[in-house]
Amino acid sequence: MRTYAGHSSAAASNALYSRNLGKGQTGLSVAFDLPTQTGYDPDHVLSRGEVGKVGVPVSHVGDMAALFDGIPLREMNTSMTINATAMWLLALYQVTAERQAEAAGEEPAEWVQALSGTTQNDIIKEYLSRGTYVFPPAPSLRLITDLVAYTVREIPKWNPINICSYHLQEAGATPVQEIAYAMSTAIAVLDAVRDSGQVPPDEFASVVARVSFFVNAGVRFVEELCKMRAFVQLWDELTRERYGITDAKARRFRYGVQVNSLGLTEAQPENNVQRIVLEMLGVTLSKDARARAIQLPAWNEALGLPRPWDQQWSLRMQQVLAYESDLLEYDDLFAGSHVVEAKVSALVEGARAEMARVEELGGAVAAVESGYMKAALVASHAERRRRIESGESVVVGLNRFETTEPNPLTADLETAIQTVDHDVERHAAEAVRVWRENRDADPGRRARAEAALERLRADAASTTNLMAASLECARADVTTGEWAAALREQFGEYRAPTGVSGSVGVGSSEPGDALARVRDLVARTGEDLGERLRILVGKPGLDGHSNGAEQVAVRARDAGFEVVYHGIRLTPEQIVAAAVAEDVHLVGISILSGSHMELVPEVLRGLRDAGAGDVPVIVGGIIPESDAAALRAAGVAMVFTPKDFGLNEIMAEMVGVIRSARGLPVLESAPA
Questions:
Q1: Does residue 227 carry a catalytic annotation?
Q2: For 144, what's the count of Cα atoms within 13 Å in the CB-facing half-sphere?
Q3: Is 249 annotated in the active site?
Q4: Is 71 within 8 Å of 14 (Cβ atoms)?
Q5: Is 247 a catalytic residue?
Q6: pLDDT 10s digits, 127-136
């Protein structure tokens, strides 16, 4: 039983973990901030606005020691949501455990052997959904392979990879796609480990036994339950037939869950509580396909960062189910159900067919590089949005049953969410500078750090397993940014396909419907201006949650706009340069990491300095109303949050913003 937690600083997160453990939480699930996830120190230019926002910053072994101060790692099961820098964070974790053992007067090697937990370490889904990748696919797969091979030998209780279908569903995956792409990722990883020669064939069952999965549970209860039974069946089949694993225990499908965040609404957010409970039941009621670990989001995630009380509420949901209900007293409740068996069979067959398509393309890595899987997810997400907007898919409180009593939970929005101290970034940036200066002021420590980084570069240029060099970097007080920079020198960086240009949107529309009316507005405004309307969709900072930006880009294209979208991880300066070079009529900024108050004003200033201050800027994201008001006061034309789910309405308002900025009269036509 976990809650996904971490923010501000190592010390603040340590206090939060201690409180959560005291409330009955049985494991830790660490959220790292975006600079840590993408290999930057807090004082790097790309870290601006992102430090401590969506997780805890960990810049070196000192931060890791502070994060787990007073929490004996030998006794803890720790899940770390970390991917591109997973090897580095595990190295910091191991060195911290070694030092805890030494302080306790015990043998460090015994503590390391006893460590249990998980590094997420699934790079494939980062290219498709989450966006915290750093290196190209091939070296990323090497990092995964090296970490798997190392942990099987040296940390046998550790799960070195947590293959994540969770993020695929958040990016729009259907159940069939979620199963197929997760299994295709598993094949890519297991094939790479097998072919590396680092694990003898007679020990390969140990590799399979340490592979775990992290899945999503949506609100379609029966479908989600059947999806998990399909996962179990396919994994058993795959590991037995493709890899020859005869030990049934090693073939067991081991998975953890965070239930769906995509379906959480800002409108009537109290409804999120029953959504969370229903989704939890979907992965617990079927004993033969039951989750091993569950972490639940909080009811107010669509509003902002949950408070400790909100996390406690989610933990108590699990505890009531486990200890008050009789769920755990019975064998599988669905064995022999014709309905469940038929649905499972359909999902299995659909997943096999999609896995075959990926295999034909050359496997998961090739399907990422070609853009096939990304385009498929963007198209599925577009279809999901179309169903919600049309009312085919009912979302209570959002597109039906919208009348509501005043909500006491959100009566004071300023206290309904956790806020991060604005000084966190400044303190973290100063702290990492002091860490490096103090290290380098000592000739011995400086020489050791330089030698460790040189060894890392040399090993990266060879086929040597990179874990030993990473451990030496951790012991030598190297920082997260320094470790990643050394590998960037060797491996380079990568920009994944956006999936927008190859994606199918909502398609054609009938005359008189909402999209047709928006197309009319776009066309008439283009005629008034004598040119086609152009918009830029920008993702500044390190926020890799691109699903919303992609859907805006696809719908804008379908509505007749010319769309400029260069993907994630842009600086404000790059966004401004693109807006000026493309001579766009509007800039749309998407930020879900909470860095809007730092990055959006920089875009506004940049446009003014470039002589493009008349280009309107709109912003979308998880933005509290007080911040939205401040952004509007700073010059932002409009602010959209999750309650603004109607993309056709948003498109029409974008046209209105452009017309206002260009001094054109308001058009009468508007979407229904």
A1: no
A2: 33
A3: no
A4: yes
A5: no
A6: 998 899 999 9
